[in-house]
Design brief:
With 333 residues, the chain is of the alpha+beta class. Helices cover 36% and strands 22% of the residues. The chain has seven helices and twelve strands. The strands form three sheets. The protein has an eight-stranded mixed beta sheet. A two-stranded antiparallel sheet has the order 1-2. A hairpin with a 4-residue loop joins strand 4 and strand 5. The longest helix is centred in the first third of the chain and has 28 residues. The N and C termini lie far apart (185 Å).
Length: 333
Amino acid sequence: MITTSTRTIRRSVAWIRLTTLLVALAVLAAFGPGRAEAKTAAKASSSSKAKPPAAKATTKKKTTAKATAKKKAAKKTAAKKKPTSKKKAKKTATRKTDKGTTKVCKSVTTGKGKRKKTKRSCKRVKTFQGHGVARAQLRTAPLEQPSGELAVWSENLGEGVTVNIYAKDAQGRPTGEFDDAALAALDEVFRCRRTQEVRAVDPKLYEQLSRMLDHFRSQEGGEDRRFELVSGLRYSERNSSRHHHASAADVRIKGVSIREMYDYAESLDPGGMGIGIYPTSGFIHFDYRAPGEPSYRWTDLSGPGSGKASKSTKKKKAPAKRPRTTPARRATS
Protein backbone atom coordinates (compact mmCIF):
# COMPACT_ATOMS: atom_id res chain seq x y z
CA MET A 1 0.00 0.00 0.00
CA ILE A 2 1.17 3.44 -0.95
CA THR A 3 1.42 5.70 1.96
CA THR A 4 0.25 9.29 2.08
CA SER A 5 3.81 10.71 2.12
CA THR A 6 4.71 8.86 -1.07
CA ARG A 7 1.74 10.35 -2.87
CA THR A 8 2.66 13.80 -1.77
CA ILE A 9 6.22 13.43 -3.14
CA ARG A 10 4.93 12.19 -6.45
CA ARG A 11 2.60 15.15 -6.77
CA SER A 12 5.41 17.56 -6.00
CA VAL A 13 7.64 15.99 -8.69
CA ALA A 14 4.83 16.18 -11.20
CA TRP A 15 4.33 19.91 -10.45
CA ILE A 16 8.03 20.58 -10.81
CA ARG A 17 8.11 18.84 -14.17
CA LEU A 18 5.07 20.75 -15.36
CA THR A 19 6.56 24.07 -14.22
CA THR A 20 9.86 23.28 -15.97
CA LEU A 21 7.97 22.42 -19.17
CA LEU A 22 6.02 25.66 -19.06
CA VAL A 23 9.19 27.70 -18.50
CA ALA A 24 10.86 25.89 -21.42
CA LEU A 25 7.89 26.65 -23.69
CA ALA A 26 7.98 30.33 -22.65
CA VAL A 27 11.71 30.59 -23.38
CA LEU A 28 11.22 28.86 -26.72
CA ALA A 29 8.47 31.25 -27.63
CA ALA A 30 10.67 34.28 -26.78
CA PHE A 31 13.98 33.14 -28.24
CA GLY A 32 12.98 30.47 -30.69
CA PRO A 33 14.28 29.93 -34.32
CA GLY A 34 11.65 32.24 -35.87
CA ARG A 35 12.82 35.24 -33.81
CA ALA A 36 16.46 34.48 -34.59
CA GLU A 37 15.69 34.33 -38.33
CA ALA A 38 13.84 37.65 -38.08
CA LYS A 39 16.81 39.22 -36.32
CA THR A 40 19.19 37.88 -39.01
CA ALA A 41 16.96 39.22 -41.79
CA ALA A 42 16.80 42.62 -40.10
CA LYS A 43 20.57 42.74 -39.84
CA ALA A 44 20.96 41.78 -43.52
CA SER A 45 18.53 44.47 -44.67
CA SER A 46 20.28 47.16 -42.58
CA SER A 47 23.70 46.20 -43.92
CA SER A 48 22.39 46.28 -47.51
CA LYS A 49 21.13 49.83 -46.92
CA ALA A 50 24.47 51.01 -45.48
CA LYS A 51 26.63 49.69 -48.32
CA PRO A 52 26.28 51.41 -51.80
CA PRO A 53 25.81 49.31 -54.90
CA ALA A 54 28.91 48.17 -56.83
CA ALA A 55 28.14 50.54 -59.75
CA LYS A 56 28.15 53.60 -57.44
CA ALA A 57 31.50 52.58 -55.94
CA THR A 58 33.06 52.30 -59.45
CA THR A 59 31.82 55.80 -60.44
CA LYS A 60 33.31 57.27 -57.26
CA LYS A 61 36.69 55.65 -58.03
CA LYS A 62 36.69 57.13 -61.57
CA THR A 63 35.89 60.62 -60.26
CA THR A 64 38.75 60.39 -57.76
CA ALA A 65 41.15 59.23 -60.50
CA LYS A 66 40.23 62.23 -62.71
CA ALA A 67 40.76 64.67 -59.85
CA THR A 68 44.19 63.16 -59.17
CA ALA A 69 45.14 63.43 -62.86
CA LYS A 70 44.14 67.12 -62.90
CA LYS A 71 46.27 67.84 -59.86
CA LYS A 72 49.29 66.17 -61.47
CA ALA A 73 48.80 68.19 -64.69
CA ALA A 74 48.60 71.44 -62.67
CA LYS A 75 51.86 70.56 -60.87
CA LYS A 76 53.63 69.90 -64.19
CA THR A 77 52.48 73.28 -65.59
CA ALA A 78 53.74 75.07 -62.49
CA ALA A 79 57.06 73.24 -62.76
CA LYS A 80 57.52 74.47 -66.35
CA LYS A 81 56.88 78.09 -65.38
CA LYS A 82 59.30 78.10 -62.44
CA PRO A 83 62.80 76.56 -62.48
CA THR A 84 62.62 73.55 -60.19
CA SER A 85 66.32 72.75 -60.17
CA LYS A 86 69.36 74.76 -59.11
CA LYS A 87 70.79 74.37 -62.61
CA LYS A 88 67.82 76.09 -64.25
CA ALA A 89 67.86 78.84 -61.64
CA LYS A 90 71.54 79.42 -62.33
CA LYS A 91 70.89 79.71 -66.09
CA THR A 92 68.18 82.29 -65.48
CA ALA A 93 70.52 84.31 -63.27
CA THR A 94 73.25 84.13 -65.93
CA ARG A 95 70.93 85.49 -68.62
CA LYS A 96 70.19 88.52 -66.44
CA THR A 97 73.89 89.25 -65.97
CA ASP A 98 74.51 88.88 -69.74
CA LYS A 99 72.70 92.17 -70.38
CA GLY A 100 75.03 94.67 -72.06
CA THR A 101 77.50 91.97 -73.13
CA THR A 102 78.19 90.07 -76.37
CA LYS A 103 79.56 86.58 -76.90
CA VAL A 104 82.85 86.72 -78.83
CA CYS A 105 84.48 83.55 -80.18
CA LYS A 106 87.86 82.93 -81.78
CA SER A 107 89.95 79.94 -82.84
CA VAL A 108 92.97 79.16 -80.65
CA THR A 109 95.74 76.85 -81.94
CA THR A 110 97.86 74.90 -79.48
CA GLY A 111 100.73 72.45 -79.96
CA LYS A 112 102.95 71.75 -82.95
CA GLY A 113 103.12 69.11 -85.66
CA LYS A 114 100.89 66.10 -85.03
CA ARG A 115 99.88 67.47 -81.65
CA LYS A 116 98.59 70.67 -83.22
CA LYS A 117 94.99 71.31 -82.21
CA THR A 118 92.56 74.12 -82.92
CA LYS A 119 89.95 74.93 -80.33
CA ARG A 120 87.13 77.45 -80.34
CA SER A 121 87.37 79.79 -77.38
CA CYS A 122 84.40 81.99 -76.43
CA LYS A 123 83.91 84.67 -73.80
CA ARG A 124 81.46 87.46 -73.02
CA VAL A 125 82.67 91.04 -73.36
CA LYS A 126 80.97 94.42 -73.03
CA THR A 127 79.02 95.37 -76.15
CA PHE A 128 80.27 98.95 -75.98
CA GLN A 129 83.77 99.90 -74.86
CA GLY A 130 85.04 103.45 -75.16
CA HIS A 131 87.88 105.66 -73.91
CA GLY A 132 89.34 109.11 -74.26
CA VAL A 133 92.57 109.88 -76.14
CA ALA A 134 95.72 111.32 -74.56
CA ARG A 135 97.29 114.35 -76.24
CA ALA A 136 100.46 112.37 -76.85
CA GLN A 137 98.50 109.99 -79.12
CA LEU A 138 97.05 112.74 -81.33
CA ARG A 139 98.53 113.91 -84.61
CA THR A 140 100.96 116.78 -84.24
CA ALA A 141 102.09 117.19 -87.88
CA PRO A 142 99.89 119.43 -90.06
CA LEU A 143 97.48 117.63 -92.39
CA GLU A 144 98.31 117.75 -96.08
CA GLN A 145 95.69 119.01 -98.48
CA PRO A 146 94.01 116.04 -100.21
CA SER A 147 93.34 115.71 -103.91
CA GLY A 148 89.69 116.58 -103.25
CA GLU A 149 88.49 113.54 -105.19
CA LEU A 150 85.55 111.86 -103.51
CA ALA A 151 83.39 108.94 -104.70
CA VAL A 152 80.48 107.99 -102.43
CA TRP A 153 77.70 105.43 -102.85
CA SER A 154 74.75 105.54 -100.44
CA GLU A 155 73.53 102.02 -99.63
CA ASN A 156 70.20 103.19 -98.18
CA LEU A 157 69.31 105.64 -100.95
CA GLY A 158 70.73 103.68 -103.87
CA GLU A 159 72.45 106.84 -105.13
CA GLY A 160 76.04 107.85 -105.65
CA VAL A 161 78.21 110.79 -106.66
CA THR A 162 81.80 111.36 -107.79
CA VAL A 163 83.10 114.91 -107.44
CA ASN A 164 86.10 117.04 -106.52
CA ILE A 165 85.34 119.18 -103.49
CA TYR A 166 87.80 121.94 -104.54
CA ALA A 167 87.07 124.67 -107.06
CA LYS A 168 89.46 125.14 -110.01
CA ASP A 169 90.63 128.21 -111.88
CA ALA A 170 90.44 128.76 -115.62
CA GLN A 171 93.55 126.64 -116.15
CA GLY A 172 92.02 123.75 -114.19
CA ARG A 173 94.24 124.15 -111.15
CA PRO A 174 92.79 123.80 -107.63
CA THR A 175 92.24 127.15 -105.98
CA GLY A 176 92.14 125.76 -102.43
CA GLU A 177 88.55 126.90 -102.01
CA PHE A 178 85.54 124.61 -101.80
CA ASP A 179 83.31 124.04 -104.81
CA ASP A 180 79.77 124.77 -103.57
CA ALA A 181 78.16 122.73 -106.35
CA ALA A 182 80.24 119.67 -105.46
CA LEU A 183 79.48 120.08 -101.76
CA ALA A 184 75.75 120.42 -102.52
CA ALA A 185 75.83 117.20 -104.57
CA LEU A 186 77.49 115.38 -101.66
CA ASP A 187 74.94 116.84 -99.21
CA GLU A 188 72.16 115.23 -101.28
CA VAL A 189 73.75 111.80 -100.96
CA PHE A 190 74.32 112.36 -97.23
CA ARG A 191 70.67 113.36 -96.65
CA CYS A 192 68.51 111.75 -93.93
CA ARG A 193 67.01 108.48 -95.15
CA ARG A 194 63.90 108.78 -92.94
CA THR A 195 62.97 112.44 -93.34
CA GLN A 196 64.80 113.25 -96.63
CA GLU A 197 66.13 116.32 -94.84
CA VAL A 198 69.21 117.89 -96.46
CA ARG A 199 71.74 119.87 -94.45
CA ALA A 200 75.17 121.29 -95.12
CA VAL A 201 77.69 118.69 -93.99
CA ASP A 202 80.86 119.99 -92.33
CA PRO A 203 83.40 120.43 -95.20
CA LYS A 204 86.21 119.24 -92.90
CA LEU A 205 84.50 115.84 -92.87
CA TYR A 206 84.60 115.71 -96.68
CA GLU A 207 88.31 116.63 -96.60
CA GLN A 208 89.07 113.76 -94.21
CA LEU A 209 87.13 111.36 -96.43
CA SER A 210 89.15 112.56 -99.43
CA ARG A 211 92.43 111.97 -97.55
CA MET A 212 91.34 108.43 -96.67
CA LEU A 213 90.29 107.69 -100.25
CA ASP A 214 93.61 109.03 -101.59
CA HIS A 215 95.46 106.69 -99.22
CA PHE A 216 93.53 103.51 -100.08
CA ARG A 217 93.40 104.29 -103.81
CA SER A 218 97.19 104.54 -103.81
CA GLN A 219 97.38 100.86 -102.89
CA GLU A 220 97.80 98.29 -105.65
CA GLY A 221 94.52 97.65 -107.45
CA GLY A 222 92.69 100.36 -105.51
CA GLU A 223 92.29 103.00 -108.26
CA ASP A 224 88.52 102.54 -108.52
CA ARG A 225 87.72 102.33 -104.84
CA ARG A 226 84.88 104.34 -103.38
CA PHE A 227 83.15 104.86 -100.03
CA GLU A 228 80.02 102.90 -99.22
CA LEU A 229 78.00 105.25 -97.02
CA VAL A 230 76.07 103.37 -94.33
CA SER A 231 74.76 106.49 -92.60
CA GLY A 232 75.28 110.22 -93.02
CA LEU A 233 72.81 112.81 -91.76
CA ARG A 234 70.20 111.52 -89.32
CA TYR A 235 67.88 114.46 -88.76
CA SER A 236 65.45 112.43 -86.61
CA GLU A 237 68.33 111.42 -84.31
CA ARG A 238 68.76 112.86 -80.82
CA ASN A 239 70.42 116.28 -80.61
CA SER A 240 73.50 114.86 -78.91
CA SER A 241 74.36 112.74 -81.96
CA ARG A 242 76.94 114.12 -84.37
CA HIS A 243 74.88 112.56 -87.17
CA HIS A 244 72.11 115.03 -86.30
CA HIS A 245 74.56 117.92 -86.67
CA ALA A 246 75.76 116.73 -90.10
CA SER A 247 79.32 116.16 -88.93
CA ALA A 248 79.53 112.34 -88.86
CA ALA A 249 79.73 109.45 -91.31
CA ASP A 250 79.52 105.64 -91.08
CA VAL A 251 81.50 104.22 -94.00
CA ARG A 252 83.27 101.18 -95.38
CA ILE A 253 85.44 100.54 -98.46
CA LYS A 254 85.11 97.31 -100.39
CA GLY A 255 88.37 95.36 -100.30
CA VAL A 256 89.71 97.18 -97.23
CA SER A 257 89.37 95.80 -93.69
CA ILE A 258 87.59 98.05 -91.21
CA ARG A 259 90.52 97.61 -88.81
CA GLU A 260 92.86 99.10 -91.43
CA MET A 261 90.42 101.96 -92.03
CA TYR A 262 90.09 102.58 -88.29
CA ASP A 263 93.86 102.69 -87.76
CA TYR A 264 94.40 105.13 -90.64
CA ALA A 265 91.52 107.36 -89.48
CA GLU A 266 93.19 107.57 -86.05
CA SER A 267 96.39 108.83 -87.69
CA LEU A 268 94.45 111.77 -89.17
CA ASP A 269 93.09 113.05 -85.85
CA PRO A 270 94.71 116.31 -84.71
CA GLY A 271 92.16 116.53 -81.90
CA GLY A 272 88.41 116.86 -81.50
CA MET A 273 87.46 113.75 -83.52
CA GLY A 274 85.40 110.71 -82.57
CA ILE A 275 86.34 107.43 -84.23
CA GLY A 276 84.53 104.14 -83.64
CA ILE A 277 84.71 100.64 -85.08
CA TYR A 278 81.70 98.33 -85.53
CA PRO A 279 83.01 94.79 -86.17
CA THR A 280 79.56 93.13 -86.24
CA SER A 281 78.03 95.62 -88.69
CA GLY A 282 81.28 96.02 -90.65
CA PHE A 283 81.93 99.78 -90.80
CA ILE A 284 83.78 102.60 -89.05
CA HIS A 285 82.33 105.83 -87.72
CA PHE A 286 84.20 109.09 -87.56
CA ASP A 287 83.03 112.57 -86.75
CA TYR A 288 84.03 116.02 -85.66
CA ARG A 289 83.07 116.57 -82.03
CA ALA A 290 81.28 119.64 -80.74
CA PRO A 291 83.63 122.62 -80.16
CA GLY A 292 85.73 122.07 -77.06
CA GLU A 293 85.05 118.32 -76.80
CA PRO A 294 88.12 116.01 -76.71
CA SER A 295 88.79 113.10 -79.03
CA TYR A 296 87.15 109.79 -78.26
CA ARG A 297 87.52 106.15 -79.40
CA TRP A 298 85.18 103.18 -79.07
CA THR A 299 84.32 99.66 -80.18
CA ASP A 300 80.66 98.71 -80.60
CA LEU A 301 79.78 95.02 -81.05
CA SER A 302 76.03 95.60 -81.46
CA GLY A 303 74.48 94.50 -84.73
CA PRO A 304 72.39 96.37 -87.30
CA GLY A 305 69.18 97.90 -85.88
CA SER A 306 70.17 97.32 -82.24
CA GLY A 307 69.74 100.99 -81.43
CA LYS A 308 66.15 101.19 -82.68
CA ALA A 309 63.46 101.94 -80.16
CA SER A 310 60.97 99.19 -79.35
CA LYS A 311 57.64 99.30 -81.16
CA SER A 312 54.75 100.86 -79.29
CA THR A 313 51.05 100.50 -79.94
CA LYS A 314 50.40 104.05 -78.76
CA LYS A 315 50.39 106.82 -81.33
CA LYS A 316 53.33 109.14 -80.96
CA LYS A 317 53.07 112.88 -81.31
CA ALA A 318 54.87 114.40 -84.28
CA PRO A 319 58.16 115.93 -83.13
CA ALA A 320 58.34 119.70 -83.19
CA LYS A 321 60.42 121.13 -86.02
CA ARG A 322 63.94 121.98 -84.95
CA PRO A 323 65.83 124.86 -86.55
CA ARG A 324 68.82 123.93 -88.67
CA THR A 325 72.22 124.73 -87.24
CA THR A 326 73.54 125.09 -90.80
CA PRO A 327 71.28 125.80 -93.81
CA ALA A 328 71.36 123.40 -96.73
CA ARG A 329 73.55 124.41 -99.67
CA ARG A 330 72.06 125.11 -103.04
CA ALA A 331 73.80 123.75 -106.07
CA THR A 332 75.35 126.45 -108.24
CA SER A 333 75.86 126.21 -111.97
